[in-house]
Model the fold of this input.
Amino acid sequence: MSQLSPSAVFSQVSEAVPESCRENIVIIGSLAAGYHFYHSEGAIRVRTKDVDCILEPFQEAVSAGRETARQLLDAGWQRRQKGEHVEPGDENTPEDQLPAVRLYPPGVDPEDADAWFIEFLTVPESEDTPEKNWTRMSIEEGHFGIPSFRFLSITAFEPLAIEKLGIRYARPEMMALANLLEHPEIKPERMSGLIADLSIKRSNKDLGRVIAIAVMADLDDYGVWRPLWENALQHCFPSSWKKLASQVGGGLRELLNSEEDFKEAYHTCINGLLSSEKISQEDLHINGERILVDLIEPLEASVGN
Done:
């Protein structure tokens, strides 16, 4: 896992991406949260290995992805050669078997512990898009796939702009909501790799990140996030937003009630977003309870749950 400066990586991505495509990019994940809370503290580093970039709106994702990939490859960025599908496909390759666009910066040794790569994602075409969907993108090297996940539209809702760089990043509270929606219950699937030598359930990692974001935000009342959450749900899921809102707290409650699962979540937090913070497992648990009381329970009550 690399120790990255959010500000430095954001600047490098902005410089490398075609100016005409910058407005189509929303950076999400650990670096987005780290930039939001720590960009004025130059010494702060975030532990991550990938820079997830959402291309949006959906209708412009392929054209923006094609132009950006072309410029990066021509500038010496190198494709990541790991994973199930590595080689570019062709017109006969099923979309779900196409390699994703994952590129290391020029001169980076992919085996280096501090190596990081950029990855392209896109928002779903509509609220009815399946949980995971692939959109085909062809360039000179062959065919690639741009994945979308059901709640990436929530993640990319009303992103924040970095005017001097011309790119945008996801609001931390939107990333928190997307993770809650993705995990209405704790699922058994585990991360493909270890996190600081431990095997972790993906649900525990993502739900732990929700609490980590709350800790970083350090608000007196997390209820201030509710209006934006409601706007995002209504905009992205107009026909099902009330049902989704009624389920938003399920996974977090399960996490807080399971000592084993919460230990995993705490482990990911102190070895991830909260690696620069000194927080006990008990204090992290208290922050999770506050999210429920301040924010989730009033939201659920408003939709009749």
About this structure: The CA atoms of residues 117 and 285 lie 32 Å apart. The radius of gyration is 19 Å. The chain has two domains: 2-155, 171-302.
